[in-house]
Amino acid sequence: MLLPAFSLAKRELVRFFRQRGRVIGALATPVMFWLIMGSGIGRSFAGEGGDYLKYAFAGTTTMILLFTSIFASISIIEDRREGFLQSVLASPAPRASIVLGKVLGGTALGFVQAFPFLLLAPTVGLPLTAIGLAAGAASLALTSFFLSSVGFFFAWRSESVAGFHGIMNVVLMPMWLISGALFPLDGARSWMGYAMRANPLTYGLSALKSAIIPGAHEPFRMATSFAVIACCAAGAFVACSVSVKGDKA
Amino acid sequence: MSAAITGCQVEPSRVQHDTVTGPAIVVRALEREFGERKALAGVSFEVREGEIFGLLGPNGGGKTTLFRILATLLPPTRGTAAILGHDVVADPAAVRRAIGVVFQATSTDKKLTSLENLIYQGHMYGMSGAPLRKRAMELLERFGVADRAGEYCEKLSGGLRRRVEIAKGLLHGPKVLLLDEPSAGLDPGARRELREVLEGLKKDGTTVLLTTHFMEEGAMADRVAILDRGLIVALGKPESLCAESGTDVVSIRSRDPGKLRDAIAAKFQAPVSLLDGQLRVERSRGHEFVPQLVESFPGQVEAVTVAKPTLEDVFVRKTGRSFVEEPAPAAPKKGH
């Protein structure tokens, strides 16, 4: 059960580091977004007593996870009908371990890209402490697992990459937009506030902010945020496994 | 239950094993529908242990659908299929352990080396460590890819990569190997090599089921089933199928084939078909027919060939259609 899963996850990492374009793209895009948005909006944004570069830092880290999970999900669609995944599906490896392998692979990919970015925290005046870094890493791992599972769930049902783009625009991107990455929960209109509270990613991001921003005014306690994102990650994974198992084709 | 499906004589195959064993693959009344379209409309056959069995037919004839059902990747709509006694629907895990599958589309990861591809594959089958590495190198050696074992698969030629695919399928030592269009996209040299690989598998006693739309490739199988529009139109040993009619095939080229066809049909009381611009007549003594033909229609015959029927001719006889001209169906299977 675990050997196929770890093997599949390892393959994702090996593949990733062998494609330099992917490495550069995955790191450069969010940094670019962050610099453009952060520097552009700059001091017009009066939240949290700092400028926007600082505010958007945690959200950008989550964006890296989001992009990675989207890329990983697209590879599922491409691989499934013809390619590597087809021979995996014809093998006796349990379906759940195939799902676990792909999701863990996506999680690891997200993590190895987002974590180095986290180390840039001092550039916006956020101190790096061992505890903060450890908690931050934990929140990244959970959020990455959650996003990879959600991506897998939709990718498995998508017939084509084009179809998945629709899902990406309607589900994944908005999930990030209203996670508190761009604007804080407490300043949003009430209906938006509800939507943000219903969004699992809000808790993942809040956990990250609680971890790396000293004295962060987060709407949730850190333990609550961790608990919610962990449960959502587990739930999304179970949904994937059930979905794949029920799919006889 | 008997294996005879069509009128073809099915002779006992050459001596291969000292024990009499049951069939490796049993397919019964198998049907598969995609919406309105019937990709398989009731197919039954058996593949004996140790034999090379060819599924022939035009694209869209149902080969790939049948292949995917046997590989446990697609459930049948009706009917059953079992490999080494394991039903593909009731016990897919047992089937997956028993079979090796080589897909038409490359399943090797191009960013991994040949050896790595085999190692990852082994992990899926619960193999690991030094024994797995040893087995993988053995197979790469056997297929002549060992010296390129450390190169990314994207650097390999189509023929070499196909050999890695086959090595991948054989890694866990399956008794039954399923090959989907193994020669598609290969140059003639690589196809010859593939033939040698198949001969080797046969010697090992591996049961091989392969699909192909190259009719001449069916000749290397012990038995073939010709699939057309979801049905088996012929089943038997290639040589028996070809010899079945006991006739020669006379092909005639003419400037005005339509007119000549009617004239020949009227004079010789024989059915003449016009396929791909050539007239085709089946005669029991072809060499005697040719002089009569040429003398009867002076100046109208441009070229004549007399040949023993090939599997392609068998297809034409059974379906009344040209094999090559068969257009791909409008609604292909998803993802095929």
Descriptive overview:
The complex is a heterodimer of chains A (249) and B (336). Chain A has 249 residues and is mainly α. Chain A is 78% helix and 0% strand. Chain A has one domain (2-246). Chain A has helices at 2-17, 20-41, 52-81, 84-89, 95-118, 130-157, 161-181, 190-198, 200-212, 222-246. The longest helix of chain A has 30 residues, at 52-81. Chain B is α/β, with parallel strands linked by helices. Chain B folds into two domains: 23-242, Rossmann fold, CATH 3.40.50.300; 245-319, Alpha-Beta Plaits (2-Layer Sandwich). Chain B is 33% helix and 26% strand. Chain B is built from eleven helices and 14 strands. Chain B has a six-stranded mixed beta sheet, with helices on both faces. Chain B has a four-stranded antiparallel beta sheet with strand order 2-1-4-5, with helices on one face. A four-stranded antiparallel beta sheet of chain B has the order 12-13-11-14, with helices on one face. In chain B, a hairpin with a 2-residue loop joins strand 1 and strand 2 (37-48). The longest helix of chain B has 17 residues, at 188-204. Chains A and B meet through helix 1 and helix 4 of A and helix 2 and helix 3 of B.
